[in-house]
Specification:
The protein is built from 4 helices and 10 strands. The chain is an alpha+beta fold. The chain has a 6-stranded mixed sheet. A two-stranded antiparallel sheet has the order 1-2. Strands 9-10 form a two-stranded antiparallel sheet.
Length: 189
């Protein structure tokens, strides 16, 4: 049997927002725009939520006013993508990004936490961030109990990838003195 090709209608960020204004997408819908497609987000489990809370606590207490700690809010990546990363450290702004959603040049560190969505986050979202020019991404893999750090973005992906396990320490490139124990990021079993 031959493969069937279907035409897909891709959306821009502006059209995505028009759907929300028209009531097609509700405020409580857990969706994000990835390369023109509206993708339903995986429900957040307790380990995923605990990991985000751990990261929020670590960064909020250790970096002070040197960055804005942002959780599960939009990142504008061009005309066709607006994902909602689990956590971002953003360059501080007096208006707290009231006039526009942050863009790659505003991101000091982006973190995705993955439990059941590891493959999608690694293969789709991390590559999307690389093409968008986000300088540093951490993928917290709850299944493997590790953090993968991605640096040096390019159109074909990140050129530097390093994995950290429970016994290791990790620090964002922009805050090298943080030296965070990976076990402090990962929730217990």
């Amino acid at each position: 049997m031959a493969a069937v090709e279907v035409a897909r209608r891709r959306f821009t960020v502006d059209e995505y927002y028009q759907m929300a204004q028209a009531g097609i997408l509700g405020e409580d819908d857990r969706v994000e725009l990835i390369e023109g497609e509206i993708i339903e987000m995986v429900p957040i489990g307790t380990r995923h939520a605990a990991c985000i809370r751990r990261l929020l606590h670590i960064f909020s207490t250790k970096i002070g006013d040197n960055a804005l700690v942002d959780t599960q809010n939009p990142l504008r990546l061009g005309q066709n993508s607006e994902p909602q990363p689990d956590l971002m450290l953003l360059k501080p702004r007096d208006d707290y990004y009231a006039t526009f959603h942050p863009r790659p040049e505003d991101v000091l560190l982006l973190v995705e936490v993955a439990d059941t969505s590891v493959a999608f986050d690694r293969e789709v979202k991390v590559n999307l961030y690389a093409r968008g020019g986000v300088n540093e991404v951490w993928l917290v893999n709850l299944q493997a109990q590790q953090v993968t750090a991605y640096h040096l973005p390019s159109p074909s992906g990140y050129r530097e990838v390093k994995e950290y396990g429970r016994g290791d320490h990790i620090a964002p490139l922009v805050f090298p003195g943080l030296n965070i124990p990976v076990q402090d990021i990962l929730p217990g079993d």
